[in-house]
Amino acid sequence: MSDTTPVEAPPRRTAHAARSGAVAMVIAGLVLALTNSDALRSYVGGLPSSTLTEEALLLAEDWHAQMETHGLAVPKAELRARTQALQIMSWEDVRALLTKARSSGDDGEVTDGDGDDDGGDRDNDVGDPARTQTAN
User: Fold this and answer.
1) Most exposed: 5, 32, 57, 70, by fewest CB within 10 Å?
2) What is the C-alpha to C-alpha distance for residues 53 and 35, in angstroms, rounded to an integer?
3) Quick one: which of 88, 110, 86, 81 has its CA closest to 98?
4) Torsion, CA 61, CA 68, CA 34, CA 64, rounded to 10
5) Nearby residues of 67 by Cβ (< 8 Å), 6 or more positions away
């Protein structure tokens, strides 16, 4: 008989989960280091002044310059610019933007291309009242 209760995870499974979590954290850290270098620079710049902080700020600024050189800082800057543009839009601007998108045929809806809006394929429109008839 086993000494483990149903709520206890076997040690091997727990170790595997811990390793998987650590790997995920390292990957997330690398992604942030590559794409969010501006935030690192801002964070270090806000620390209390000391010799170590000044050195860290120089390293953070060099890192950010390298990320800009390789284009890795562009997606965040572009996303931030677009978000800020949306935030300052008036409702009239939003209405005009939506009207323009609808008139160009790009209404943002995901369709299946068969002319209806059920999300199904042309030959299998089960549940579409316009395409199915009830038997009496």
Assistant:
1) 5
2) 22
3) 86
4) 0
5) 34, 35, 37, 73
The CA distance from 34 to 48, in Å, is 25
Tokens matching residue 119? 């999300």
Contact of 34 with 72, CB cutoff 8 Å: yes
Q: How far apart are CA 60 and CA 68, in angstroms?
A: 12
**For the chain, where are the alpha helices, taking DSSP H only?**
11-35, 37-45, 51-69, 74-87, 91-103
**Is the model more confident about 133 or about 10?**
10
Compute the distance between CA of residue 111 and CA of residue 98 in angstroms, rounded to an integer: 18
pTM more than 0.70: no
